[in-house]
Amino acid sequence: MIRTSFKLLATLVLGAAALGAQADTYPSRPIKVVSPFPAGGATDVLTRILAERMAKTLGQPMIVENKAGAGTSIGAAFVSREAPDGYTILMATNSTLVTNRYLYKELPYDPDGFARIGMVGVGPLVLLSSPKRPFNSTQDLVAYAKQNPGKLTFATFGPGTSSHLAGELFKERAGIDILHVPFKGATQALPALISGDVDLFFDMVATGMPQADAGKVKVFAITSPSRLATQPKLETLSEQGYPSFDMTAWFSFVAPKGTPAPAMEKLQQALAETLQDEAVKKRMLDMGIDPRSGTPAELDKQIQTEQPIVSQLIKQANIVLQ
Q1: Each residue of 8-65: pLDDT tens digit?
Q2: Measured between alpha carbons, how far is 93 from 99 in angstroms, rounded to an integer?
Q3: Which has the closest alpha carbon to 76: 122, 43, 46, 29?
Q4: Dist. CA 292–CA 287, nearest whole Å
Q5: What pLDDT score does 9 carry?
Q6: Where are the alpha helices (DSSP H) in 99-235?
């Protein structure tokens, strides 16, 4: 009995020592950050801004890898299969953690199967049009769509992404029939919009507005409940006759389920410090993204709040499951 107790005590002591050593040494090598969209898009740019600053706190490089496609499912599935050691994390969006569970019959990952590092930020979308189309306002666009049902197309970041949901919500609110054309991200969708291969696109402010400012696309409205401080002249869709129109993209960091607590704590600390950095906050606001707390509690709340809303929208819009 005494010998058994001694062995148990020794095991506990060794376990505690191992955890302490891990906490002291993590991270001891570079950390991989998976961006589930192509390089150059708003999500990718945001990921790189945060990774660069977090690396300073962690004392190790954070290397961003792009694994785009299937509404973030490819990147999410990759991270879910990685070792839960704190050396691979994912930039997860509302598509990853909420929408995909209602959109796909089968997913290559479990939306609830990640350790939540924290909430990053929230940003609205802008309604863009091809410069080759005859309409010059949301009102003109809706009138044209009603006169030509099923002839207009809208590009998106991919099935189930915020741009897809924005398009479906706009269809429902405006009472129009426009066709969904999915891409892997803005870097593919924008050239198609500019060339006239597609007619409309709900894009992030960071990638859409530079093209609008350059005269390469038309911009009609923004999807947030109120105007952006950085784009004060851009009207909301609510102001244009679609009350309570609210569709945003949000961003978070997660890790494989089972990632040790010491690693999670250091990642959470690095994210929180990064989101308090004035230079980072300014860059995010310039992108049209409102920085958030960086806490897992806020991410949990965001997921729980949005699930019933997205589920209902998908049912109302009759989006066919993949």
Answers
A1: 554 554 444 444 445 569 999 999 999 999 998 899 999 999 999 999 999 999 999 9
A2: 9
A3: 43
A4: 14
A5: 52
A6: 100-103, 138-147, 162-174, 186-195, 205-213
Q: How far apart are CA 191 and CA 198, in angstroms?
A: 9
Q: What is the mean pLDDT of residues 300-311?
A: 93
Q: What does the mean pLDDT of the chain come to?
A: 91
E strand or H helix that includes residue 279: helix 278-286
**What tokens were used for 183?**
């891409």
- Judge whether 307 and 315 are in contact, CB under 8 Å: no
Give the range among 10-19, 236-245, 299-308 with minimum mean pLDDT: 10-19
Tens digit of each residue's pLDDT (9 = 90 or more) over 107-132 = 999 999 999 999 999 999 999 999 99
Q: What's the length of the chain? A: 322
- Maximum CA extent, the chain: 87
Q: What is the DSSP string of 112-161?
A: T-EEEEEEEEEEEEEEEE-TTSS--SHHHHHHHHHHSTTT-EEEESSTTS
- Is residue 96 a contact partner of residue 111, using CB atoms and an 8 Å limit? yes
As a whole number of angstroms, the distance between CA 182 and CA 221 comes to: 21
Smallest CA-to-CA distance from 92 within 247, 251, 203 is with 251
d(CA 20, CA 11) in angstroms, rounded, equals: 14
Q: What tokens were used for 130?
A: 């091809």
Contacts of residue 110, defined as CB under 8 A and 6 or more positions apart, other chains included, come to: 80
pLDDT digit string, tens, across residues 172-218? 999 999 999 999 888 899 999 999 999 999 999 999 999 999 999 99
DSSP code of residue 300: H
Its pTM stands at: 0.84
Give the pLDDT score at 294. Answer: 92
Which residue, chain included where needed, has tokens 């006169």? 147
Give start and end residues of each alpha helix (H) in 175-245: 186-195, 205-213
User: Alpha helix locations (H) across 234-286?
Assistant: 261-276, 278-286
| Closest residue by Cα to residue 166 from 109, 224, 214, 93 | 224
